[in-house]
Design a protein that fits this description.
It contains nine helices and three strands; from the N terminus they run αααααααββαβα. It is mostly helical and 328 residues long. It folds into two domains: 203 residues, Alpha-lytic protease prodomain-like, CATH 1.20.1510.10; 111 residues, Cation efflux protein, cytoplasmic domain (Alpha-Beta Plaits, 2-Layer Sandwich), CATH 3.30.70.1350. β1 and β2 form a beta hairpin. α1 runs antiparallel to α2, α2 runs antiparallel to α3 and α3 packs antiparallel against α6.
């Protein structure tokens, strides 16, 4: 619940800041008549729309699981991120279109100094809020906050580029710089939108996240118990920071069901602690086979066929395989 409240509060702050900055940038465009300033303001409309969409998705994703959504509502955050990425792409292409038009029919520029002051203020605010959103989003495993924060930070750099262009115009009088600056930073905006969409699609498609799997591997190797003879066929689904983990756990074949579940609990407790209870499991228990004796260090095993030679170190690749690890 604390995670949800913190995320919602941060998204509300982002929405409020986006609205204020949009108003400031529109004022700067009105004062300067600069197409590059207009494109910066146009991108801010995306921030406002995406902010409200993100807030809705975070509130929805916080709803508990129900009969129709047994895994919860967390996937909506990936959909929200995809929508935001698409809006960013559209803004980037519109910016390029407006910049080309301005090259063909240049606008008369006015009050550039006043516009620069307003834009500089928005750049500072954007970066601070964007950095806060990305940090909070990574901490709380919220793709919406990460996407929104990344967008704000990219908006900061585009604003700085536009400020640089305006300064050059003031120094040289070359009005074509206005359109050139807009096109350069439109390309940066388009790339940012692509990255956000790519990340969102991978979440929707349950693409294996190498970082998460490596994190699990490191935790299991560090906390390994002798009666965790083998772990394989690991699969992880990310529901916007809530993880569903499937795996096969190999235990001594001669123990009873209750003892097997005690071993299973020791495994899940380690991962629950690491992921701060943002995880659920479907663990299938396998009995060991004789070819695993060499990697098994269970004390007092009555059916051992081979001396223990050393544990099989779990890695990203072998923990995903759908077969038991054996002594080689």
């Amino acid at each position: 619940m604390n995670k949800t409240l913190n995320t919602i509060q941060m998204q509300r702050l982002l929405v409020t800041v986006s609205v204020v900055l949009f108003i400031i940038k529109m004022l700067a465009w009105y004062l300067t008549a600069s197409v590059s300033v207009l494109t910066d303001a146009l991108e801010s409309t995306v921030n406002v729309i995406a902010g409200f969409i993100g807030l809705y998705s975070i509130v929805l994703s916080a709803k508990p699981r129900d009969r129709e959504h047994p895994y919860g509502h967390g996937k909506i955050e990936f959909i929200s991120s995809a929508v935001e990425g698409a809006l960013i792409l559209c803004a980037g292409f519109i910016i390029i279109y407006q910049a080309v038009l301005n090259l063909l029919v240049p606008h008369e520029l006015k009050q550039l100094d006043a516009g620069m002051i307003l834009l500089a203020a928005t750049a500072v605010i954007n970066y601070i809020v964007g950095h806060m959103c990305v940090r909070k989003g990574k901490k709380e495993q919220s793709p919406v906050l990460v996407a929104s924060g990344s967008h704000l930070k990219s908006d900061t750099w585009s604003t700085i580029g536009i400020l640089t262009g305006i300064l050059l115009i003031m120094l040289t009088g070359w009005k074509w710089i206005d359109s050139a600056a807009a096109m350069v930073f439109a390309a940066i905006i388009i790339y940012t939108g692509y990255r956000i969409i790519r990340k969102a699609v991978s979440g929707i498609m349950d693409e294996s996240d190498t970082d998460i799997v490596n994190d699990i591997v490191e935790v299991l190797n560090r906390n390994r118990l002798d009666n965790w003879i083998d772990i394989h066929n690991v699969r992880v689904i990310d529901y916007a920071g809530f993880y569903h983990i499937d795996c096969h756990l190999t235990v001594p074949y001669y123990i009873n069901v209750n003892d097997a579940h005690l071993i299973l609990d020791s495994l899940t407790d380690v991962l629950k602690t690491h992921f701060r209870n943002r995880v659920e499991f479907f663990v299938h228990v396998d009995g060991c086979i004789y070819r695993q004796c060499g990697i098994c260090n269970v004390t007092g095993c009555p059916v051992r066929q081979r001396e223990f030679s050393g544990h099989k170190t779990w890695t990203h690749d072998n923990i995903l395989s759908n077969s038991k690890h054996v002594y080689e």
